[in-house]
Amino acid sequence: MSQSLILEHVGFAYDAAPILQDIQLSIPGGQFVSLLGASGSGKSTLLRLIAGLQTPSHGRLSWNGKNIDGPGLDRGVVFQDYALFPWLSVVDNIAIAIGKARPETRKAERREAAREQLRTVGLASAIGKYPFELSGGMRQRAAIARALAVGSPLLLMDEPFGALDPVNRARLQDLLLEIWEAGSGDETQKKTIVFVTHDVDEALYLGDRVVILGSTPGRVIADLPVEFPRHRDRRTLFDSAAFHTLRESIAETLAADTLRQLVAA
Amino acid sequence: MSAESVPTLSLESPATPAGRAPAAGPARALLTLAEGSAIWLLLLALWFAAAEYFPLGDNPLIPGPQVTARALWESLPELWTGTLSSFSILVPGFLLATGLGIALGIIVGTSPRLQRMFFPFARVVAPVPPTVYIPYAIAILPTFKLSAIFVVFIGAFWPIFHNAAAGAHGLEQRYRDNARILGLNGLEYRWKVVFPSALPHIFSGMAVGLAFSFILLTVAELFGANAGLGRFVQYYADFADYPKMVAGILYTGAITWLAMSGLEALKHRLLFWQR
């Protein structure tokens, strides 16, 4: 086991209000984990802790045996909206990231690498453009291109497709799986992905595993393997009985947690 | 895999900039022009009428339009020399204020400690009207020009510094997160992230600073200049040459407007990424 993301008794409180409580997770390298939860479950906070943007109040996190105590280029992040700097062209947004990851490269090389990365995410048309000239879907593609260009082995995605229309959302989900599965020839090359979402279908379509967070405070209430074979076909999968069974059980888990909260309140 | 390369399938068309008025037809443009010039035309008509139908021609305090226009035409060489003299004070003072105001504003705005040090000081010193420094600056500094530059600098510095610091301080969380994730820090972070994101604020500060600069410049010139726009107006007022004085006022107004428009154009150019 060369790479793994380990969370030990991780807790986080904001102004004495507990947001996350005793999170225990071990994610082996190359796994695609969907982090599912209702709003207020602290799933975005958990992602920010892994990214190193926030420090846990309790417990510790480590990636590849290294303690996480701040952001690092060994972890790429894609946010829901506008992860790009609007004053830089799309190419320069990616080139600036490449410059930090590989400082020895020259400016022209970085730009060429950025253009190449844009082509691999189907965004050749964005070369020479600024973020404000792109649609939401194109911007998220560019954000993914930037995260890939850095070459981080761990990709953290915070509802990256949450603001997109259903058609674009499906296309970007497929793109993400395509990129991730392309690394599967060599297991060491395969990226580890933690994907935050509140959409059950999205979590099941993408993930090897669904970790469900309950609310107030956020804690793991279920951790389920998703064993549908890879190179999944959206339509066949969504029509299958196995998918429905899993989907129902997750819906029940979430509903039970909501009920528990109501009773508590 | 690249759906964007197939035009017929391209659902993700580039976003059209929102909020822009639809393409204006010639009638619309004409109306806009009429609306924009209505007050000017009205004032001009009143001025003509007053000069024509009231004995204003005899009143040396209110010269009519033709008299003023002739005075303006005759004074153009002198006004041009005055403009050069005024700008040799305004430009260095304003540019120095812009450079230092932006640099210090961004350094202070990104450091909580420097904010705690600077802001209480700035709160006391910034509101002091810079005009009160003029006599002392003239007494202390070796030349009038240096003291005027200093006063323009002081007047323009505070609004620019204040806005740059506020812009840097108010950097949006998502840009800050973004910079941290990419490992941008130090000077690179301030230059590539903080500065561009604070530019809208900085331009507001520069507009206030430039307006202040013109006020301070013309006031300073009343004290000890031997040339310049403010000096021109004061000089002909002393001789009760009101046509030239009014011409000087109109000319100074036009120059100020040109300078402000230039700044506005620069802002428009540099902030193209803002919708």
Topology:
The complex is a heterodimer of chains A (265) and B (275).
Chain A: E1 4-14, E2 17-28, E3 32-37, H1 43-51, E4 58-63, E5 66-67, E6 75-78, H2 90-101, H3 107-120, H4 136-150, E7 154-158, H5 166-182, E8 192-197, H6 200-206, E9 209-214, E10 219-225, H7 234-239, H8 241-264
Parallel strand pairs in A: 3-8, 3-9, 6-7, 7-8
Antiparallel strand pairs in A: 1-2, 1-4, 4-5, 9-10
Chain B: H1 26-53, H2 65-109, H3 112-125, H4 134-140, H5 144-169, H6 173-182, H7 186-224, H8 229-238, H9 242-270
Helix pairs in contact in B: 2-5, 2-7, 2-8, 2-9, 4-5, 5-7, 7-8, 7-9, 8-9
Structural notes for this entry:
The complex is a heterodimer of chains A (265) and B (275). Chain A has 265 residues and is of the alpha/beta class. Helix content of chain A is 39%, strand content 25%. Chain A contains eight helices and ten strands. Chain A has helices spanning 43-51, 90-101, 107-120, 136-150, 166-182, 200-206, 234-239, 241-264; strands at 4-14, 17-28, 32-37, 58-63, 66-67, 75-78, 154-158, 192-197, 209-214, 219-225. In chain A, helix 4 (136-150) packs parallel to helix 5 (166-182). Chain B has 275 residues and is mainly α. Chain B contains nine helices and no strands. Chain B has helices spanning 26-53, 65-109, 112-125, 134-140, 144-169, 173-182, 186-224, 229-238, 242-270. In chain B, helix 2 (65-109) packs across helix 5, helix 4 crosses helix 5 (144-169) and helix 7 packs parallel to helix 8 (229-238). Residues 1-20 of chain B have low confidence and may be disordered. Chain A binds chain B through residues 51-53, 70-73, 75-77, 79, 81-88, 96-97, 100, 119, 122-125, 129-138, 150, 167-168, 171, 175, 178, and chain B through 1-5, 11-15, 17, 174-175, 177-178, 180-184, 192-193, 196-197, 199, 272-275.
